[in-house]
Amino acid sequence: MRGLALTATLVAAASLTTAPAHAHEGLPSHHCVLNGAEVPPGQEVFGTPGDDVIECENDVENVIIWGGAGNDNIRVKGLIIDSQVLGGDGDDRLQTSHLLPREGQASIRAGAGDDTVIVPTVMGTTDNGAAVYGDQGADTITVGTVSGSPGQHARGGGQVFGNDGADTISAGVIDFGGRVLGGSENDVIEAKGVGPEAGGVIQGGPGKDTIRGAKDTVLLAGPGWGLVDGGLDEDRCKVQHANPERARSTIAACP
Predict the structure, then answer these.
(1) Handedness of CA 22, 103, 106, 164 (dihedral sign)
(2) What residues does 156 pair with on adjacent strands?
């Protein structure tokens, strides 16, 4: 029953956070190139209906980058400051530097298709969130540290969502309230640790999920208040308490 309750709570929270936020109202800043041509200054960097290459050399701030239709390659070498990077339709590759929400939200949305997302850190605050969404399709999401507790209505904090499709999510340490949620199908979630100092959450959701440590090792929950919940269906887990004698972590629905 505890696993079912956790599943319902976290799936509901994910549905509240899937609507993309607008870029924070402020002076937009970017230096981006679309298919070899420099993009004029402004709040929007939009691709074409075909396959695009969008490259941004520096930080992007208060900007929306959207690949649109086609198999797009979007690379942002600087910080994602109060901005969104949206893959759109197609099998896209989105690679950015750190998500940095200052006055608004910083997020990556892969969109429809089998996408690849690479982000070094997903670190938000209660008021200003950093989030990665796989959306539809079988996505491969690779992130580093995930941290930051969500605030009211599960908004804010540092969060990674697989959403729809059989996704593979590889994360670094999930702590200080950070959350990784698989989604609706058979997902694979790997992490280097969950809740080693404070608390973090991994939740598989519906589907036959696999939850384990990095490179198919045993994932340690704790010694802080880590939570690993396989969710519904029959899951495969390689998870154990970091401190079995004085376990503060929780492992649920995860045989």
Answers:
(1) negative
(2) none
Domain extent, residue 194, equals 169-254
pLDDT reading at 34 higher than 60? yes
Please give the residue that has the higher pLDDT: either 65 or 23: 65
Long-range contacts of 33-40 (CB under 8 A, 24+ apart): 33/57
**CA-to-CA distance for 140 and 119, rounded, in angstroms?**
11
pTM of the model: 0.89
Residue 187 resides in a domain: yes
CA distance readout (Å), 204 to 12, 110, 125, 160, 161: 14, 19, 23, 12, 10
Tell me the residue type at 232: L
Beta bridge partners of 86: 66, 109
Q: What mean pLDDT comes out for the span 230-249? A: 94
Spatial CB neighbours of 84, under 8 Å, sequence gap ≥ 6: 20, 21, 23, 63, 64, 65, 105, 106, 107, 108, 109
The pLDDT of residue 33 is 98
Does some domain include residue 71? no
* The predicted structure's pLDDT at residue 255: 84
Domain count, the chain: 1
